[in-house]
Design the sequence.
């Protein structure tokens, strides 16, 4: 329960809790940059969900996303990444910022909004901006650790210019 | 002076396609005119412009156009280029308006492209602005909710669609569909390579090797139609939990979420899963609860965009809409279990176009004396390139 998270006052998150949130976001980014998809999945609650969709689909209330996973499909996706997909060599770098934490009294979750940019270096050696967007995270405490109950990654790009192997 | 002999046309035989058709800029320019302007070209869906005044930007090849719904309910397609200086008239991707006004000097046009107003018109000597005319209007016909356009003198659309028409009507339920969202992504390959990919049935168990690990194979038909259209179809069988659990027990890939293969809706007439390629640029798919139309938009000889719209049927419950969208996104989207690999494969082919010793693409699998066959033959791929050769005059 988040009431163990020590909010200073209603609606304001203390420095310790903010630090924990930032650490969770950074850990999530590092796991994907380092291609440790299963570690990233481990940052979700056991009932966690992840959605990656375009701003256009979200603004129009269209249900189509590019990824819409629960823990079962996350496990299937891990198999695809480890065993079945052909993955070009390359690197990615996720930068997360503009973190806005909303702590609602009486609720056991934090609502966290942050901006992200992902740069991708492909086999040709060039760095490109793969995608930019906003994370809408619902974060809660599970077994004493902060975990993602839901992450919705809304990308700004109207056109994706690279196949998507790892989530945003 | 030594005369320069013209380059020979690319050679296309039944089983070999000269790979210059994927890398030659001159061939590409000819395609844009011959296939995407002089012939029927897919531009969008009626469901995208349901109300009078609705418009959506689209492309005929690389030519920017505006698809709109006129006040009388008819669908119009006009070139998106002001007859004054050539600026885009519609800048937004979609919207609703009664007229189109160029932002630059405020020339105003109707949905049918007619020039309605020009500022400072009295200052034009002898009314010369009238000679510029309106927005070039294409001939438009629709079928099963698909909007097609042409600037050429061609046969009626229904004749062009030929044997593909009843399949399209079945998959799209006569056009009674609704939009569930878009995927737009770049394919780093010639536009034909993605069309070919969808009509090449047997890559499904090879490129998408998880299907072998799942032990799921399909047996069906590879149907070649007139005018380069084709369909891959097989019986739609919905797999129950019991069947899947028993099936997966000894398989390498013990998929945890297989709802994709469990249809919650009735398939179109015939009860088939169908993947259709409609020459030159429309792909129409129904597999289990997934329904979609893909618009291939060429963006240069070595690049194309896929504008995919996921569809539901009018009257679907919220639950069914959500399932259709989730299944489609997770399976065929750019991060989809199958869709992602197609993008990678096309890019790998394009990477060697024009620079290696492999100067033809080889497609001889199956019975060469038969027009159509089973899914382990390259029938529809040959059908596509046979029509392409004829249309391009190679």
Sequence:
């Amino acid at each position: 329960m988040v009431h163990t998270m020590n909010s200073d006052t209603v609606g304001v998150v203390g420095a310790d809790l903010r630090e924990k949130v930032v650490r969770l976001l950074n850990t999530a980014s590092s796991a994907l940059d380092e291609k440790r998809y299963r570690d990233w999945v481990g940052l979700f609650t056991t009932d966690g969900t992840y959605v990656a969709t375009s701003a256009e689909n979200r603004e129009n209330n269209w249900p189509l996303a590019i990824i819409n996973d629960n823990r079962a499909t996350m496990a299937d996706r891990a198999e695809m990444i480890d065993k079945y997909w052909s993955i070009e060599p390359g690197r990615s770098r996720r930068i997360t910022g503009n973190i806005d934490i909303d702590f609602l009294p009486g609720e056991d979750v934090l609502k966290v909004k942050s901006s992200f940019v992902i740069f991708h270096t492909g086999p040709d050696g060039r760095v490109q901006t793969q995608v930019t967007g906003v994370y809408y995270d619902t974060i809660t405490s599970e077994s004493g650790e902060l975990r993602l109950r839901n992450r919705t990654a809304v990308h700004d790009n109207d056109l994706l210019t690279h196949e998507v192997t790892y989530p945003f | 002076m030594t005369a320069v002999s013209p380059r020979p046309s690319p050679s296309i035989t039944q089983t070999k396609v000269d790979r210059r058709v994927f890398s030659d800029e001159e061939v590409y320019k000819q395609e844009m005119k011959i296939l995407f302007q002089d012939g029927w070209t897919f531009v969008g869906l009626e469901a995208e412009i349901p109300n009078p005044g609705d418009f959506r930007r689209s492309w005929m090849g690389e030519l920017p156009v505006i698809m709109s719904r006129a006040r009388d309910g008819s669908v119009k397609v006009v070139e998106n280029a002001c007859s004054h200086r050539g600026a885009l008239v519609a800048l937004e991707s979609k919207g609703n308006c009664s007229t189109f006004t160029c932002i630059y000097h405020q020339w105003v046009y109707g949905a049918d492209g007619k020039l309605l107003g020009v500022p400072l018109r009295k200052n034009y000597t002898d009314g010369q602005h009238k000679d510029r005319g309106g927005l070039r209007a294409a001939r438009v016909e629709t079928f099963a909710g698909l909007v097609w356009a042409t600037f050429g003198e061609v046969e009626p659309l229904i004749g062009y669609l030929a044997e593909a028409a009843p399949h399209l009507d079945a998959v799209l339920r006569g056009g009674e569909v609704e939009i569930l969202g878009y995927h737009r992504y770049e394919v780093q390959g010639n536009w034909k390579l993605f069309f070919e990919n969808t009509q090449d049935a047997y890559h499904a168990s090879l490129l998408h090797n998880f299907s072998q690990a799942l032990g799921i194979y399909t047996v069906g038909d590879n149907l070649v139609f007139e005018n380069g259209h084709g369909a891959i179809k097989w019986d739609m069988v919905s797999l129950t939990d019991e069947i899947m659990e028993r099936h997966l027990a000894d398989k390498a890939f013990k998929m945890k979420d297989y709802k994709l293969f469990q249809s919650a809706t009735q398939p179109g007439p015939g009860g088939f899963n169908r993947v259709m390629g409609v020459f030159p640029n429309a792909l129409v798919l129904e597999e289990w609860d997934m329904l979609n139309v893909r618009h291939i938009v060429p963006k240069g000889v070595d690049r194309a965009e896929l504008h995919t719209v996921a569809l539901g049927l009018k009257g679907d419950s919220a639950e069914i809409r959500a399932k259709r969208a989730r299944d489609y996104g997770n399976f065929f989207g750019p991060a989809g279990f199958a869709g992602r690999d197609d993008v990678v494969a096309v890019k790998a082919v394009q990477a060697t176009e024009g620079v290696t010793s492999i100067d033809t693409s080889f497609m001889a699998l199956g019975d060469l004396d038969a027009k159509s066959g089973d899914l382990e033959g390259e029938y529809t791929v040959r059908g596509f390139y046979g029509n392409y050769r004829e249309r391009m005059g190679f």
